Amino acid sequence: MLRTLIALAAVLSTTACGARVVAEPPGAGTTTVTNCGREVEYATPSRVVTNDTGITELMFALGLADRMAGYTISSSAKTGDVASSPWRADFERVPHLGEKITKELVQGAGADLVFAGWNYGFSESTGLTPDSLGQLGIATYQLTEACRNGVAKQRGIMPPLEALYTDLGNLGRIFGVEDRAERLITGYREQVAEAQRLVTGKSPRVFLYDSGLDQPFTSGRNAAPQDIIEKAGGENVFGDLDDSWTTVGWEAVVARAPEVILINDYADGDASTPEQKRAFLEFYEPLKDVPAIRDKRFFVLPYAALVESPRNPAAVEAFARFLAGA
């Protein structure tokens, strides 16, 4: 019965211009893919709600803007990440539904699928989870980078770039745009391979600084910065942590003596701008003997390039050029 209702929702949809009836959306039917280790069957969605910049850009890169009911992102992302997005025109024409995703927002948008992830919209604390949406008859697709790996709430079940390619392939099947997905995957693999030609053979130790004053928030081996750093020729100093985004201690940063600091620019958090983050790092007394601080070796990438997104391959290239010239 649930699948029948979801399929019916894909046929009967509404727009801002009023009600309309779609005889049969492209690729109508059901498709089964593996998402976060589970086989999940999907009716072809026509009113998708996404949460966060990178997730939304995955839809846009696949040419699926017309299959979306809208997206939610923070106000800082709307003025920051969207302004630099290759898909800015899609962001402008698809409805921005709000800053935070909720069950009420999703229901109000008439969503037949929510594309989000754990800590990218899904959270037990807010009550918005795949299970709670399933009880409302709304399907979900979980961002692979944010899949929980079975150890408490740790996230990540495969190398980050493989997570990107997995999601592109799965979404291509679900929406019937497999050819476009395969072209993107092939192009991204080639872009990363070309970037690796710039690697000099040195492997500078790199610390990803996201935010945090008392304790830094950084990337373990399962978040996108791991592959951005590694494919660019560096070594993630916290690449031994079996998690995606996680909190560590400043003592651990000092002990691992990073030679380069990669700053996440997303105009949010305890120290918001890249300039403020750099100033904090340079004047924080415990870090004064860290090689990256001493030698003033910093590089900045936007938030949307450092979470799983279609910007990851370009981020590898940009960082590889920096390391090659540093």
TrEMBL record:
InterPro entries found in the cross-reference section: ABC_Transporter_SBP, ABC_transptr_periplasmic_BD
Signal sequence extent: 1-19
UniProt entry keywords in alphabetical sequence: Signal
Domain Fe/B12 periplasmic-binding as annotated: residue spans: 47-326
Top-rank taxon: Bacteria
Gene3D superfamilies named among the record's database cross-references: Nitrogenase molybdenum iron protein domain
PROSITE patterns: FE_B12_PBP, PROKAR_LIPOPROTEIN
Family of this protein: Belongs to the bacterial solute-binding protein 8 family.
Listed name of the protein: ABC transporter substrate-binding protein
